[in-house]
Q: What sequence folds into this?
C-alpha cells in the first residue's frame, strides 16, 4: 500500500479488538466501553487505523461524519 498523500510505502496499519474496554475523548466528551463508530478509525469493540510513517496522514476518506457531532447539535 502507498500513502494517499505522499506515496510513501511506509504505511503502518494496526487493528485491535478491545472487548468493550476502550477509553476515548473527543472535544468535551469522554467515554469508556464500546468505541463510537468513526469510519477509518473505530467501531464497537474494534479499532482499525492506517497511518503513513513519513507524513503522518491517516489513510482513508476525510472528513468523516460521527454521531458524536450530532449529539452536540442536539444539546
A:
Amino acid at each position: 500500500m502507498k500513502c494517499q498523500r505522499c506515496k510513501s510505502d511506509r504505511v503502518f496499519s494496526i487493528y485491535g479488538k478491545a472487548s468493550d474496554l476502550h477509553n476515548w475523548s473527543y472535544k468535551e466528551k469522554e467515554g469508556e466501553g464500546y468505541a463510537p463508530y468513526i469510519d477509518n478509525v473505530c467501531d464497537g469493540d474494534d479499532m482499525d487505523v492506517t497511518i503513513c510513517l513519513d507524513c503522518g496522514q491517516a489513510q482513508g476518506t476525510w472528513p468523516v461524519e460521527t454521531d458524536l457531532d450530532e449529539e452536540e447539535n442536539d444539546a
Q: What stands out?
A: Strands lie at 11-17, 22-26, 29-33, 35-38, 42-44, 46-52. The chain has one domain: 11-64.
